[in-house]
Amino acid sequence: MLIEGARRVGKSTLAEQFAKNEYADYLFLDFSRVSDDILDLFRSYRSDIGTFFMYLKAYTGARLPQRDSLIVFDEVQRFPQAREFIKQLVADGRYDYLETGSLISIKRNVSGIVIPSEEESMRLGPLNFEEFLRATGEESLIEPIRDSFERLRALPDMLHRKAERLFREYMLVGGMPQAVNAFIEQQDFGAVDAVKRELLALYRNDIAQFGQADATRIARIFSTIPGQLARRDKKFKLTSLDQNARSRDYADAFFWLADACISNTCYNVDDPSVGLSASMDESSFKCYMADTGLLVSQMFADNATTPHEVYRDILLGKLAFNEGMLTENVVAQQLVSNGHRLFFYSQRDDANNANTMEIDFLLSRGYDDAAGRMRVSPIEVKSSHNYQARSLEKFKTKFGKRVGTRFILHPRPLCVEGDIERLPLYMSWCL
Length: 431
Fold this sequence. Notes:
18% strand, globular, five-stranded parallel sheet, alpha/beta
């Protein structure tokens, strides 16, 4: 198993804890700091696995009883030969293997190796809201929220207000484990902001170190994500980076950020149907931060710290500037955590404004009124209590029977009107 994910998202901690819980013994090899002697074993004994293990146990002092031990290749992207060696190791059958890595697909980290077909991959993201509730000791809210979503009954006002407050805290803190730990231990948004800024600095250093020929383009995209999301339609405009910019010139840079699990890309769909990816337009997209807490700090990257007024106003729901970028980003984060690819629908008609519509997200879901068959569910995200939802009506009119349940995610309690479910934002992790 290969666990992919952003730097500092908790891959190594998760792998080691799993090893401790589930195996009689384990060996943890961190390829960012392992000795040259260990690396030489991988280079010299690929064809003699018995000697490889004999020497490996002698070097490390591990017992490694067969069929009850796990070997962890941590930061495996730093030593691709070990990843390639997995094929022989799995065939040998003595042990189980768990790899962790970041930037696992960029050319530099797969050059000259054959990726083993035996490798299964999973992606570890930042904590979603459900996991945030567990981490902060508020897990008693999880079942009522899930039950409310499934039965389409609003939570009692007291629980709704509590869940709304906690969701705003989550939006500010985000789901990166170090930031969440700082929040739990210190209950201080200033301390949380300092942790998030360290993570952002780490990402900038990674871009400079590993971005190679695309480093400048990657850095430009990364620094402008907040500005792009502050736009009314939130679509990424390459011309804001360079008047002569072309999609093909920046394709590798966007891939790098997505592969590093720093960003989530949401593509426009020209002709929405159940197979959303079949009609996606790769030249029209939105680029979200993978973690909304990091987006909050990234918005004020030019300041030494994020102004405390920002944290206060978001908590109180009185943010003066575009809070919509944060709420849309946090919904994207919840959808990705549930395994959804991100799609949206945008149609602009300057000649007839009645045909213009913007749908924030699209999902393929079973629809009760179609005997459970899959339909396209449009989702609109609203950050304020006062809004209009004309685009949902236009979407239903245009695509008719293709459309299933329509959703509005907003700060209000749950309410159902026909095939429109108005859900509080804190239920976005249930979709």
